[in-house]
Amino acid sequence: MSTTNKKAVVLSSGGIDSTTAMAIAKSEGYTIYSLSFRYGQRHSVEIESARKVAKAMDAAEHLILDLDLGKIGGSALTANIDVPKHDSTEELAAGEIPLTYVPARNTIFLSHGLAWAEVLKAGVIFIGVTAVDYSGYPDCRPEYINAYEKMANLATRAGVTGETRLKIRTPLMKLSKGEIIRRGIDLGVDYSLTLSCYDPDQKGRSCGKCDSCLHRKKGFKEAGITDPTVYV
Question: Is-contact 193 201, C-beta < 8 A?
Answer without folding.
Answer: no
